[in-house]
Amino acid sequence: MPQIRNFSIIAHIDHGKSTLADRMIQRTGLVESRNFRDQILDNMDIERERGITIKSQAVNLPYVNSKGEEFELNLIDTPGHVDFSYEVSRALASCEGVLLLVDASQGVEAQTVANLYSAMEHNLVIIPVINKIDLPSADIDQVKEQIEVDLALDSDMAILCSAKEGTGVEDVLEAITVHIPPPDGSIEDPLRALVFDAHYDPFRGTIVNLRVFSGRVRPGDKIRMMSTGATHKVEETGIFRLGREPRDALSAGEVGYIIAGIKTVSDTKVGDTITLDTDPASSPLPGFKEVKPVVFSSVYPVTSEDYQGLTEALDKYKLNDAALVFQKDSSAALGLGFRCGFLGLLHLEIVQERLEREFGQFLIMTVPTVEYHFTLTNGEAIRVDNPLYYPDPATIQKSKEPYIRTSIFIPERYMGAVMDLCLERRGVNSRFSYPTPGRIEIQFDMPLAEVIYDFYDRLKTVTQGYGSFDYDLLDYRENDLVKLDILVNGERVDALSQIVHRDKARPRALQACERLKEEIPRHLFKIPIQGAIGGTVIARSTISPFRKDVTAKCYGGDITRKRKLLEKQKKGKKRMKMIGSVAIPQSAFVAVFKADNN
Amino acid sequence: MNAYQKHGLYIHIPFCRTKCPYCGFYSIASTSLISRWLEALKKEVNHYKDRFECFDSLYLGGGTPTLLSAKDLEKIMQHLFTHFDFAPNTEFTIEANPGDLTPEKADGLKAMGFNRVNLGVQSFNAQELLFLGRRHTGEEAESALKTLRASRFDNVGVDLMYGFEGQSLKGWINTLNRTLTFRPEHISCYQLTFERRTPFWSMRTKGVIRPIGEEEERSFFLTTSRFLEEKRYIHYEVSNFARKKIYYSRHNYKYWHHVPYLGLGPSAHSFQNKTRWWNFRSIRRYCEALEDHKAPVEGYEDLTNDQMRLESIALGLRTRDGFAIKETDLDSQSADMLSRLQNSGFLNIKKDRIVPTRKGFLVADHLPLCFDILVGLPV
């Protein structure tokens, strides 16, 4: 009977988690080197391109140590971005230990610390692993010091490796078997299994990834989802090697999957507990919470003919993303669309990219917004996540917006620039600590609204890439909020309305007016662009009309050429949105809220 | 409109003494291939002799048609008369370079049947002519015009060019005035256009010459139009003016109204029954094909009704005739747009036609994008 070890690898982005996972898969012989496709676990194109993991995956590694003892090492891969921290926590809850991976040339960074705290909350054994020791800029001693001081871990335990070159991987595997304890939990107790992920397979339905804490589950069993009470019949149980491998049962301590005729991933909630309907557990496993979206945006097709295609695309997309929520929406300017909720800006970008790439849907997205809370003069409390439902200013008694606590790690020399950036973004309550000489950790309380656009990109720019940040939701705080409208040729464009802090209204309006001036092509008439709060214009720009557009000669051969050009232009025009008599390209909507390019 | 139009015949003479740096029409600056080309042309005529009905316009363009000797031009005309039918009142046009027009030459052209000459003048100003790479002088141009009148040509067209760096509005008016002393029946005023694969194009890319600004272009155009209209010329097409309707370029008219025309010679275009086709540009390939008993056609397109409609509209917006329209052709959005365009002074909505104004001419390339016409073939 092989011994079991359940573990995860946590790290800051780009510290080499996927590469290390690849090497471990290789080393345990799951796949021959020549069939190897780098980073097998990241099997979504977007993940590969961006170098990040979006979905959790688990793989069961068969390992035989130098003494000939057999092990099953369950590696549970975790999403690497702050938007998906809940998924990370559930994956960690399924483990007994983690490898804490630190890049030898970059050192400990924001998410290293954040993930570490997560691991500690779950009382996991932590094995520090220093990766990329092959790099010339690697400074192992300094990193060891950071591990001792920043992370309060024993640096002697740290394993040195270079996943890229393959050195130290054996040591890592050995350390897992030695330091991470075997799972406990009795097969005799009622079934309690933690759902840490689910994905949709078009042939089999929803595949649920779970860690069994007690009891046993087999095909034929009737299981119950404890959060909703829904029951399903188990068709298959198994583990993940490179593909699914069915097994007779999954027992306490094991990690694997079940297939149970579950239609969509929305029917399986991450963090839920699965038990047997016939012998249910008395209480669910701790830590379950309903995932809540934080950033909202409306999505519209470029032309109304595409609406059906968009509906189908979203439905298909949702099969594999339980976190995305959406409902029908409509706008005077843009017609029928959907109001969507995302876990964060990265989530939003990923959804948009995947919809475009996989379903051929070109979208107009409205300015992303957070959820605001208003107290009206009649005492009513309302929540608004769509600027179109911003209440009549005359009726607002109090307005509140969500605040976050950010944690920013930077080298000392960027302190001034980062301070400016945070203050510019209405950061308050700054605190500093000096984890190691030359590095600063800055903490700020900031409005989430200021962060969702391009805070991360700006931070990277002002710190030349060395800055990193993470955040937690704090509370709602009162502020002076107003609704900024954008008018094109005198008509309000719903999709561009935003709720902003009064102090930010003018700069935001100016930026929108300038961006639109660049993006909207010239027309036969002058086009005024205005930013307004209520009836007051606070910023403007003008697109001058073009004054001449005619070819001198139009004889025999010119006619075909002219017609072809017209056909091309007409086609391009069809992809623009008509707001009154102004044709606005899709790119204009995006440009208005994208990052400042200075 | 087209009921009483017969077909048009175009011959492309691909030879020039020198190449002007702005010109995008195909020609070579060498006369060595003339006889070979002539033989090939004859074969091409034979190829098409039963495919087109009667012509009522013939246009010899190029290149420089007057570069050919009287003898060669005679050969061409003879061959055409033998193999094609021409209506009694056919317009026979030849393009001419002022440097080629001796009295003998002019008389010769008249004798062989030409009743219209289009003179490539461009400018009378020495500096401008130098800039444009022309091989004649202003005086030679005036002399050529005198010669044409002396040889009794009563249908003379003059080509002029404006809109390049260094030319003032005053200088341009001067050019127009000098032209007007001869009261030509037809004047073409072309704004300098940068064409790919010409020396001017690369010079512009390198920054050696700079195009004039949009406001200036507009100013030149409007001034020209107003000035010539004042002098009682009809501004009947974006770049073309005529003293009376009978002096409109009958041949060019066919291009703008989907009247069938046949184009012979390298790079020439033809149109018949919703199909457009064109010949190889290269003289060599043109000759080789014909010597091999094949038509020298490089490509063709069969137009759909939608494409025909789009062309009618685009071409219609460049001429005083405009384009035909029925109420049922428009959806409400387009009808709306057309009203707005009328209110802004770009066009006029008549009973069954849309007609551009002078202001509309200025943006004729953009107007077709402003509205959608449901398919209906032009009247």
Structural descriptors:
heterodimer; A: 598 residues; alpha+beta; Rossmann fold; Elongation Factor Tu (Ef-tu), domain 3; eight-stranded antiparallel β-sheet; B: 379 residues; alpha/beta; TIM Barrel; 2 domains; nine-stranded mixed β-sheet; three-stranded antiparallel β-sheet
Number of strands of chain A: 33
Strand line-up in the sheet with most strands of chain A: 11-10-16-7-8-15-12-13
Strand content of chain A: 25-35%
What's the CATH class of the largest domain in chain B, please? Alpha Beta
Task: Supply the number of structural domains of chain B.
Answer: 2
Structural class of chain A: alpha+beta
Name the CATH superfamily assignment of the largest domain in chain A: P-loop containing nucleotide triphosphate hydrolases
Task: List the SSEs and their pairings.
The complex is a heterodimer of chains A (598) and B (379).
Chain A: E1 3-11, H1 17-27, H2 45-50, E2 57-64, E3 70-77, H3 85-93, E4 97-103, H4 110-121, E5 125-131, H5 140-149, E6 159-160, H6 169-179, E7 192-201, E8 205-214, E9 216-217, E10 222-225, E11 231-233, E12 236-240, E13 244-247, E14 250-251, E15 255-259, E16 273-276, E17 295-301, H7 307-318, E18 325-331, E19 335-342, H8 345-359, E20 363-365, E21 372-376, E22 381-384, E23 396-411, H9 415-424, E24 428-433, E25 439-447, H10 448-451, H11 455-462, E26 468-478, E27 481-488, E28 491-492, E29 498-501, H12 502-519, E30 527-533, E31 536-543, H13 556-574, E32 576-579, E33 582-585, H14 586-593
Parallel strand pairs in A: 1-3, 1-4, 4-5, 5-6
Antiparallel strand pairs in A: 2-3, 7-8, 7-16, 8-15, 9-14, 10-11, 10-16, 12-13, 12-15, 17-19, 17-20, 18-19, 21-22, 21-23, 23-25, 23-26, 24-25, 27-28, 27-29, 27-30, 30-31, 32-33
Helix pairs in contact in A: 7-8, 12-14
Chain B: E1 7-13, H1 34-48, E2 55-62, H2 70-83, E3 86-96, H3 103-111, E4 116-122, H4 126-131, H5 138-150, E5 156-162, H6 169-180, E6 186-191, H7 199-206, H8 214-230, E7 234-237, E8 240-242, H9 250-256, E9 261-264, E10 269-272, E11 275-279, H10 283-291, E12 297-302, H11 305-316, E13 323-324, H12 332-343, E14 347-349, E15 353-356, H13 358-362
Parallel strand pairs in B: 1-2, 1-9, 2-3, 3-4, 4-5, 5-6
Antiparallel strand pairs in B: 6-8, 7-8, 10-11, 11-12, 13-15, 14-15
Helix pairs in contact in B: 1-2, 1-10
